[in-house]
Specification:
The complex is a heterodimer of chains A (217) and B (217). Chain A is built from 4 helices and 5 strands. By secondary structure, chain A is of the alpha+beta class. Mean pLDDT of chain A is 88; it is low at 210-217. Chain B is built from 10 helices and 2 strands; from the N terminus they run ααααααααββαα. The chains are: A alpha+beta (217), B mainly alpha (217). The A-B interface holds A 2-3, 7-8, 11-12, 15-16, 19, 22-23, 26-27, 30, 33-34, 37, 41, 104, 129, 131-132, 136 and B 60, 63-68, 71-72, 75-76, 78-79, 82-83, 86-87, 89-91, 93, 100-101, 104.
């Protein structure tokens, strides 16, 4: 029986599906922990740095909103997480989390974009699995490549010099640089297209003018 | 001659210590031993994987058809590797960043597939468990010792567990000095250290063999 083809298919199928099930369970368990760590260790300090100049009067992490962007061609749900920086009830800048396919997997980027002049406040990599010493340099906030982004006008679009933009790629890591840059460009495009939606969501989530008079009897 | 159970465990610690005696698993041995922490982190991750994969492979050895055994082993190993990767990302993010791509690459570490094929698929569950544990701990010792020597002579420090701030400065460096022997923590240093370790192991092995010969004769 062990040499019959159906038995081999059965065994491999069972092993494979059990493996898939286990992985799905472990992912369910670890995802919230990894997400909480990302928020705490990468996003919070990043936002503090990027929003320093605009001096927001809200907590961008507590006020974050998640937009549903439908599904990608592979059927995975697409979401956009937005951190708004507000001043007196209006949004002055936002930070968006976007991903793009890199050399060793997805590159997740947070781009802080300012709304009045349309400039980039700063960008940082949230997660990446690029080649150590080459593409992985996009994960280093002190890297010259990363520092180029602050001050660019995102409304005009952000691109590498090879694609007619202003960003110099890291030598030897064109694919990683391109992935990072396109994630930033995606953030700009999404913000352009969905600013109204973001504003609506943010206003919905934050109670309008929480009146101290009503709270105290 | 069959080994006793305790021999099954201890053979991996000295007689067949993976990188030095079997000369297996050299890729991580060279790649992640820039620090003590990298060494023991990779070692323990590999130990966990060896134990899990040996257990499952030996438990399934009478069910899996011989023709699809390698495919089954790879699925089992890959599943545990992804589980390890996710758990490390969630609970030891700094270590997982240090080891980077070398954690997913454990899938192709020949120690694990080697033990599955050469040992676990022919032996009982208890023996396979002990074999995996011994081989894994031997691998950990080897990597940690190379890592410790390289880090100590490279930077004068020993990193036990960076996430908890466990770092010992054993050789204080002059202000502004970053490295003691920078060569040691660069890739060629790994080859040289491995060569020295292999030489020492061979000298020790020769001595032991000669001693047992004179005793016997």
């Amino acid at each position: 029986m062990r040499n019959k083809i159906w038995f081999m298919v059965l065994v491999l199928g069972l092993v494979g599906s059990t493996a898939g099930l286990c992985l799905a369970m472990v992912k369910e368990l670890t995802d919230p922990i990894i997400e909480a760590r990302t928020l705490d260790e990468k996003i919070r300090p990043g936002l503090e740095r990027f929003f320093q100049g605009v001096e927001p009067d809200n907590d961008a992490i507590a006020d974050r909103v998640v937009l549903d962007l439908g599904r990608d061609p592979r059927g995975r749900a697409q979401r956009l997480m937005v951190f708004p920086a507000m001043k007196g009830g209006t949004i002055v800048a936002v930070a968006l989390r976007t991903t793009a396919g890199g050399f060793g997997g997805d590159v997740e980027v947070m781009s802080a974009l300012e709304l009045t002049e349309g400039r980039v406040l700063g960008v940082t990599t949230l997660s990446q699995s690029e080649t150590k010493g080459l593409g992985a340099r996009i994960g280093d906030d002190d890297e010259a490549f990363i520092k180029q982004f602050a001050g660019l006008t995102w409304r005009k679009g952000v691109a590498l010099t090879a694609d007619g933009g202003e960003v110099e790629a890291i030598t030897g890591a064109t694919i990683s640089s391109k992935a990072f840059t396109s994630a930033v460009a995606k953030a700009g495009a999404l913000l352009n297209a969905r600013l109204d939606e973001i504003q609506k969501e943010v206003q919905k989530d934050t109670p309008k003018n929480p009146s101290p008079a009503g709270a105290t009897p | 001659m069959t080994n006793t159970l305790s021999q099954e465990f201890t053979k991996g610690l000295w007689k067949q210590i993976p990188p030095f005696r079997l000369v297996l698993g050299l890729c991580p041995t060279l790649a992640v031993t820039m620090s003590l922490e990298g060494g023991w982190g990779m070692g323990l991750a590999t130990t966990f994987l060896l134990v899990c994969s040996n257990l499952l492979v030996s438990a399934l050895r009478n069910v899996v058809p011989p023709k699809v055994r390698i495919a089954t082993f790879i699925v089992i190993i890959a599943t545990f590797v992804v589980i390890t990767e996710l758990v490390m990302k969630a609970y030891t993010p700094a270590l997982s960043a240090t080891l980077g791509v070398f954690i997913p690459l454990i899938v192709v570490n020949c120690i694990i597939l080697g033990r599955a094929e050469a040992f676990a698929s022919k032996n009982g569950v208890l023996r396979s468990l002990l074999d995996g544990l011994g081989m894994g701990l031997g691998f950990t010792m080897a990597l940690a010792s190379i890592g410790a020597v390289r880090e100590l002579f490279g930077t004068g420090k020993l990193t036990v567990f960076a996430q908890e701030g466990l770092e010992l400065t054993l050789i204080p460096l002059a202000p502004g000095q970053e490295f003691l022997f920078r060569f040691m923590i660069e890739p060629p240093g790994a080859f040289v250290m491995l060569g020295i370790m292999l030489m020492l192991m061979n000298i020790a092995g020769d001595r032991a063999a000669r001693a047992s010969q004179t005793q016997g004769g």
